[in-house]
Amino acid sequence: MKQVDFPLAAFLLELEAEDPAFRLTVRDYGRIHAAMASGGHWNLSRLRHTLGALLVRDMVKWNMSYCCSNK
């Protein structure tokens, strides 16, 4: 899988650019791809929760950003 073929590549690259501490690995991309391939109806809430579960390494930081962005 080439990065340009990945549906969220631009979004994830922007996250990496905004936060120097945020770096995705090949394994992260694989896990996101597997989750998205699981099927079902995707909406913003499901995507947010899925990415959070797969990528967040600091739950306190995630909870703060989630609460602030969920107005």
Defining key terms:
71 residues; mainly alpha; 4 helices; 62% helix; 0% strand
Helical amount among residues, as a percent range? 55-70%
User: Mean pLDDT across all residues, rounded?
Assistant: 77
Question: Span between N and C termini?
Answer: 36 Å
Task: Work out the helix count.
Answer: 4
Rounded Rg = 12 Å
Question: Shape, please?
Answer: globular
Main sheet attributes: strand count, strand direction, barrel closure: none
Q: How many separate domains?
A: 1
Summarize the helix and strand pattern as letters: HHHH
Strand content: under 5%
Number of strands: 0
Low-confidence stretches: none
Blueprint of the fold:
Layout: H1 9-18, H2 26-36, H3 44-55, H4 59-69
What is this structure, in a nutshell?
With 71 residues, the protein is an all-alpha fold.
Describe this structure in words.
It is a single chain. The protein has 71 residues and is mainly alpha-helical. It starts with 8 loop residues before the first helix and ends with a helix. The protein has helices at residues 9-18, 26-36, 44-55, 59-69. The chain is built from 4 helices and no strands. The protein has one domain (3-69). Helices cover 62% and strands 0% of the residues. It is globular. The longest helix has 12 residues, at 44-55. Helix 2 runs antiparallel to helix 3.
